Amino acid sequence: MPSATPSITGELALIEHIRRSFPSRHPAVALGIGDDCAILRPPRGHEILVTTDFSLEGRHFRRDLHPAASAGHRCLARGLSDLAAMGANPLAAFLSLAVPSSLLRARQGRLWVEGFLSGIRGLAGQHGTVLAGGDTSESPADLILADIVLVGSAPRGRALRRSTARPGDRIYVTGFLGGAHAELNALLASNRLARIAEHPNHPHFFPQPRLAAGSALVRRRIADAAIDLSDGLSTDLTHVCEASGVRAEIDAAALPLHPLATKLSPDEAMHAALHGGEDYELLFTAPAATRVPRSIAGVPITRIGSIHRASSPKPRITLLDLQGHRLPLSPGGWEHLTTR
Ligand SMILES: [Mg+2]
Asked: Measured in angstroms, how far is the CA atom of residue 13 from the centroid of ligand 1?
């Protein structure tokens, strides 16, 4: 669809800006931004993994609450976390970005777009990910819409799946749980633009995808199955149980609460850890006989439960609560900003 002249200028300037401001050299990228396609060269003996994620204003971030760099960082973090969940290493990212033309015409708007791109660039740089292509367009509404595609690679046949947990496995998580939920709740309560710079202590604004831990799980042959905690422990573990045809038991007392979650009431903290989304930690299962280290790639590892033969009738997940009662645990992960 042809666009009005000012926005074409804006779009072309935007593409040129993106091309100039992102480094493009990477051993796996034979040809990056600038031709009809990118050309990727995966390492020998590897296979390709691809994941795609929308970041939609109003649903995944809010311009009135999130710093632009946080929105960009979160956009890329979601895709990188999916690669981490399968033990893959990123090769390249592709960004499709639709921006309202009014935004590109105003200095404040251009600053926002630059902040968004800087958030992507910062996290990409930390993980050696190159932006190898994408598309820009004028947004049909007054909303910023981004879609990011991540391409990664893993040794052939070795990528971790959610369908391969086995009865007798133990369940582990990386890092801490509930921090992103706690920080998001504080943000929504303040209802103000957060002035927060990139720092790993902000699990909602700047989540840290566990790529090094994920690829170590593959390299060291530790895990049977894995998933990333994007929708919340109860929901993501249910995915593992359903895909693997097993059930799980979780020990509430073992859950590693994030320091931000421990500031909540005990009930809220438990809710944040079990159902809060977007922690972007990894959950994995490993056979009981496997020696699982206390930390992997500098990230603490905590055993939180065990996998069992599926029972009928359900539940898929049983929670051993702090009082020692066994309760069925239903998936209660969050469903993004608009449903809250
Ligand atoms: Mg995922």
From this structure: 34
What backbone phi and psi angles, to 5 degrees, belong to 174? -85, 150
Low-confidence ranges of the chain (pLDDT < 50): 1-8, 338-340
Residues whose Cβ atom is located within 5 A of ion ligand 1: 82, 228, 230
In the reported structure, the alpha carbon of residue 85 is separated from the centroid of ligand 1 by a whole-number distance in angstroms of 7
The alpha carbon of 162 and the centre of ligand 1 are apart by a number of angstroms equal to 10
Q: Rg of the chain over CA atoms, in angstroms?
A: 21
Q: Cα separation of 340 and 337, whole Å?
A: 6
Residue-wise pLDDT for 36-69, tens only, equals: 999 999 999 999 999 999 999 999 999 999 999 9
The Å distance, Cα 271 to ligand 1 centre, comes to: 20
| Rounded Cα–Cα distance for residues 229 and 172 (Å) | 12
pLDDT digits (tens, 9 = 90+) for 111-165: 999 999 999 999 999 999 999 999 888 898 899 999 999 999 999 999 999 999 9
Looking at the chain, the domain(s) classified CATH 3.90.650.10 span 170-339
The alpha carbon of 227 and the centre of ligand 1 are apart by a number of angstroms equal to 6
- Its pTM stands at 0.93
Kindly report, as residue ranges, where domains of CATH 3.30.1330.10 are found in the chain: 5-155
Closest CA to 281 of 218, 217, 233, 219: 233
Ligand 1 midpoint to CA 159 (Å): 13
State which CATH number among 3.40.50.300, 3.90.70.10, 3.40.50.10330, 3.90.650.10 fits the domain covering 170-339: 3.90.650.10
Cα 235 to Cα 319: distance, rounded to the nearest angstrom: 13
Please provide the CATH number assigned to the domain covering 5-155. Answer: 3.30.1330.10
